[in-house]
Inverse folding.
């Protein structure tokens, strides 16, 4: 079924409601009422064997009795009757079925749910739900939800996995004057899911911004694909609960499916250009701004305020949201001196002081409009005793218009009492971005600004390395034939060699004599490590000796390792001792990767050694990525400063890290039997001198 | 002047207003009007040579003409006339003078400001301001601000450094139905400051919670003392902008004084039991809750919700605010099964599902009230089509009352449209903690809960170590006599010895022969380091050789160091080579301290080595601290997990770190000439085996 077709789910020409009811309060009553009250212009067929007319529509005893075609069937009958209703709807030839009824997968009855989907799909129909509150489309004037409120039409699309929250959002958005283009409850995702609904809203011209409430993603790869195409044309804000461990558990028990790793979800949606909100309030503010204000394409912002305190708050918030503040003192001085008293400030933030009237604001904002270097404005206002509050709304309207005409972004934070609140409400009704809190204003602008920066870059490049895939596969073949789900140390080293990742000189000595020969050849100090399929955690078993500095120590070490390992596991088969060149200490990094159950292969980079789990200074990206993206991974960890040279150290070879990230990505891509890979620690040398991957841990599966 | 006396600033029996005016819009007009409209019952003396009567009060040509005594004088005349007015007020015997006028320190005119304060203090008077918008006290029915609004009396005290924000807060709190007990604008803090105003609100019975807006603290030690005494009796919420570097710069230019280190400020106020809000909205929510709801003294909380999504959001927020969720499945099952459908959840969060009516909420909240193990509740509600919204307000009122009577904390988050907003407003008017966003509700409860936990602990203990202060002082004497502002490596080691901090075995060899003797005695490997007053950065000069493993290497190393250092600085006087036992590598920590310009001696602990500046995983405490507090420092860094044994390593000797923190604190306390101390790296061994301080950096001043 091609993508475009899903339009008839949102904009059907005819709707049947199985379980339509004459009893107010019943879901089957509310759905028909909402179709009528929403101004739906297509055909409505209430299905109920015991009624004649509901809300002026003729009632049919069964869907089979309906004369014309049925695009969409809404099912509101009890769970036990749902399968039969679906069967009848499919027989009638309906293409989309929304199942409002609950009591399926979410309470463990996957069997019936699967049977329903199979029945529908076989008949060429698709299911949304079960366990949803319905679908609304402003373009289709079609409200098949059982929401109590009339939905305010507008330009924000909401896709929600939680039904209760969805209904509450209808009321909350209406109260905040945010109109909706689409509202779709996704529910159990037995067949259609958020990726399918995204296909519709991507194409829906009335949708200017998308808000998604997500609890867990099943098919992450399809989701990423749809999300990327969505953010290419409109901003997407995602609210996902379950960031904490306990929250994730609660989400899992709520949706009945594992929520997945929140850190991967977070990385992936940012990689796809979506913004993540932490609260409903943030989500609404950001969406409303993004839907109504063109994203700022310029970079030089100024803060204009009558209160130093809120100016400082806005400055802090600009750092959080990466909004660049403009700083040419000459330009600022010339522009803002005329309306700024001597005890104010013409440095950004511009403080026109508590004595400012609407005239002063008009002058200051005329200056920001007229000064070509100033490309965007955050206008802040504290209610004062000297300001002529009756002129607040007209001042904002006028200055907003002026900036908009010039293509300059402007946002207002108005802090004060009831009169100021009234003014904000009036301005918001006109689509003007005015907020009651500094953080709301700056964050809304910031999210939009960062979205614009995302759009300005190309993201579809995928860089891969040339690696010896056949070589790696034969290593995996042997290990699997051996009955192992992991590679031995020397096999890990061979994988690194096959991928072109530099490792310390190293060889396995099957005898003491060979060990001595190798150590003498490499030069001291060396590391000695046991090689045994029966010993995975070599250090724990006493199978590793670092800093071996002399032939005598090689002899003693060989003996110690064998003794320790035999004691640790008397049955261990020991293949020999690996002798390795000892890499001089330095800051240790990690490059790794794994297959996420939802999002597929994911690559990781971060501060390595023992710090990985403790400091968690790591970043993730879903594959594929470009070299630029790999470079941005390196730059985005906190420890990145260690690579640019702290305390007089030389700059480190960042290129070699980027190479390694791409090589590990390529391994994951070309060797699907590798499930987990951790190259750690990696010691990075001075610029131009590369790195050495000291150890690696590779897990495999058939 | 004793503390109690400041009462007359807030509750004067008589007020003179110098610069009182008959012209509406003038500050001198508004102040007299606000006194009248605020219902002030004391005597009011408007001072103006050209008027007869203002707002019904008799006008005096000069303050000297007033018959009775004047407790408080408010000055609103221009800056040029202010000094003379103060002089007259002092001559009249007034004890408190608030100077609304601006144009002094904040624009650089410290001279006049200082002259004014000197004049007042000599005459036994105290100044609040200049550059303020005034003072309000509900207990005194005394509003000497020029705010346009009537102030809603209540139980939250606001002390604000920003005037414009203060006036805006009057309106914003009134709109949010938050009544004020005190509003004081602190301004330039030429004489009285926030610590003085805290003294009043600590004693003011009508104040139940304190909100402070702070930009920078001058006298941190007095501030901490007042803040500690304040949090001992009422909750304090502090809003401070300037967290970002640029924000701090903006704050500095706004207040005219350095904002100081935000990280130290943050540490200090938490140490003193205050909560820090990031936005005005947070500050208002938290204060309102804290002022109206007794802090929860118990620990077992449940979340009750009709929407899984908001339940998960609340669970996430509980982790952020350290709210413990109750988990006895048997108890929860028994209590909540009756009103929870099979497709809901009786695990915490309790999900009574979107089908819940007010009856179901009443049953669920009756169960939480009746179940003795459940000690606190977060009740969440998503507006749904099935809920009887007209019963929302009564349901909340009734269930709130029931929990309150039983001493159980309860908070409500009600998410929905206009009707739900109306309900929230009505509930808030009755002092019931109902919020429109899950985060607002949970964070308000969490801040109050954490405050209660702070109160439950004793914080006044100060632990010190026994150290050889005389020994340290003589080291400092010699170094100062030598013209240095820092200690040499060996002197640093001697300070460590004097304080009882274990260091690697080490001695200075004035000759090669002695160096060989020392190395052979200590055992290889050793470290060799140059000792020279002329070389501070030893590594940069090539003055350090690590891992010297043999007598021959000592000979070669000695020669190399001398050559390198002579090359680095041909004039360097070299006292010898320090030979040091080489400490086996391990995770490195730092203990340090410095004298903060505002808060005095501060001790620091964190992840050491090169990670200090990069990872910034460090914590600060102002002195003195107890061993318990030192232990809490150790536990609160991210890298703490490295001490409890990761990847099969043994637990580290945390006690020895606590000892070292107390020892470094004692050094800072007893040796005021030490300005900066950094013991880094510190290698910590297994439990019971102590630590070794490998290096230290100590700065001194006369």
């Amino acid at each position: 079924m091609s993508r475009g077709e899903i339009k008839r789910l949102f904009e059907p020409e005819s709707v049947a409601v199985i379980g339509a009811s004459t009893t107010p309060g019943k879901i089957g009553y509310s759905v028909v009422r909402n179709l009528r009250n929403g101004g739906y212009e297509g055909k409505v067929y209430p299905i109920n064997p015991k009624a004649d007319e509901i809300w002026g529509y003729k009632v049919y005893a069964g869907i089979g009795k309906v004369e014309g075609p049925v695009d969409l069937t809404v099912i509101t009958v009890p769970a036990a009757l749902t399968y039969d209703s679906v069967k009848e709807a499919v027989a009638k030839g309906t293409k989309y079925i929304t199942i409002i009824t609950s009591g399926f997968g979410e309470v463990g009855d996957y069997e019936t749910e699967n049977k329903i989907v199979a029945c529908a799909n076989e008949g060429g129909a698709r299911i949304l739900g079960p366990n949803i509150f319905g679908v609304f489309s402003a373009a289709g004037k079609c409200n098949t939800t059982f929401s109590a409120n009339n939905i305010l039409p507008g330009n924000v699309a909401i896709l929600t996995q939680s039904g209760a929250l969805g209904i509450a959002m209808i009321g909350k958005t209406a109260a905040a004057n945010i109109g909706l283009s689409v509202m779709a409850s996704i529910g159990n995702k037995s067949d259609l899911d958020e990726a399918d609904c995204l296909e519709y809203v991507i194409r829906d011209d009335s949708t200017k911004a998308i808000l998604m409430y997500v609890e867990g993603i099943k098919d992450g790869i399809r989701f990423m694909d749809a999300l990327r195409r969505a953010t290419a044309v409109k901003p997407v804000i995602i609210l996902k609960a379950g960031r904490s461990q306990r929250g994730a558990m609660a989400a899992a028990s709520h949706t009945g499916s594992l929520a997945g790793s929140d850190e991967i979800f977070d990385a992936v949606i940012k990689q796809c250009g979506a913004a993540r909100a932490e609260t409903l309030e943030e989500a609404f503010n950001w969406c409303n701004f993004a839907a109504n204000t063109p994203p700022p394409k310029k970079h030089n912002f100024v803060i204009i305020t009558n209160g130093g305190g809120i100016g400082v708050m806005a400055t802090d918030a600009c750092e959080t949201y990466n909004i660049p503040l403009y700083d040419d003192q000459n330009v600022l001085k010339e522009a803002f001196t005329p309306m700024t008293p001597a005890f104010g400030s013409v440095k950004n933030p511009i403080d026109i002081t508590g004595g400012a009237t609407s005239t002063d604001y008009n002058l200051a904002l005329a200056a920001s409009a007229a000064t070509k270097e100033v490309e965007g404005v955050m206008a802040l206002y504290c209610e004062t005793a000297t300001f002529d509050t009756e002129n607040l709304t007209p001042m904002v309207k006028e200055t907003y218009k002026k900036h908009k005409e010039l293509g300059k972004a402007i946002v207002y934070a108005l802090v004060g009492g009831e009169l100021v609140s009234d003014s904000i409400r009036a301005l918001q009704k006109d689509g003007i971005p005015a907020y009651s809190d500094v953080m709301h204003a700056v964050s809304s602008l910031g999210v939009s600004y960062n979205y614009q920066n995302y759009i300005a870059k190309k993201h579809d490049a995928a860089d891969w390395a040339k690696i010896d895939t056949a070589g790696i596969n034969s290593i995996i073949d042997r290990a699997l034939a051996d009955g192992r789900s992991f590679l031995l140390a020397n096999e890990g080293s061979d994988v690194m060699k096959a991928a072109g990742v530099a490792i310390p000189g190293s060889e396995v000595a099957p005898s003491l004599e060979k060990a001595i020969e190798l150590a003498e050849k490499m030069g001291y100090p060396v590391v000695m490590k046991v090689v045994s399929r029966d010993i995975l955690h070599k250090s724990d078993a006493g199978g590793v000796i670092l800093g071996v500095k002399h032939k005598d120590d090689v002899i003693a070490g060989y003996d110690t390792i064998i003794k320790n390992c035999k004691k640790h596991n008397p049955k261990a088969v020991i293949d020999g001792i690996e002798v390795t060149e000892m890499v001089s200490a330095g800051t240790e990094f990690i490059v790794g990767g794994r297959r996420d159950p939802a999002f597929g292969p994911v690559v990781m980079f971060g501060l390595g050694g023992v710090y990985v789990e403790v400091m968690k200074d790591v970043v993730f990206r879903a594959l594929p990525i470009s070299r630029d993206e790999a470079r941005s991974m390196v730059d985005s960890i906190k420890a990145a400063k260690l690579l640019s040279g702290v305390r007089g150290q030389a700059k480190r070879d960042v290129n070699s890290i980027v190479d390694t990230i791409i090589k590990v990505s390529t391994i994951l891509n070309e060797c699907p039997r590798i499930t987990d890979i951790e190259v750690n620690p990696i010691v990075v040398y001075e610029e131009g001198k590369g790195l050495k991957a000291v150890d690696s841990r590779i897990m495999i599966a058939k």
In short: Chain A has a mean pLDDT of 92. Chain A touches chain B through 105 residues (CB under 8 Å).
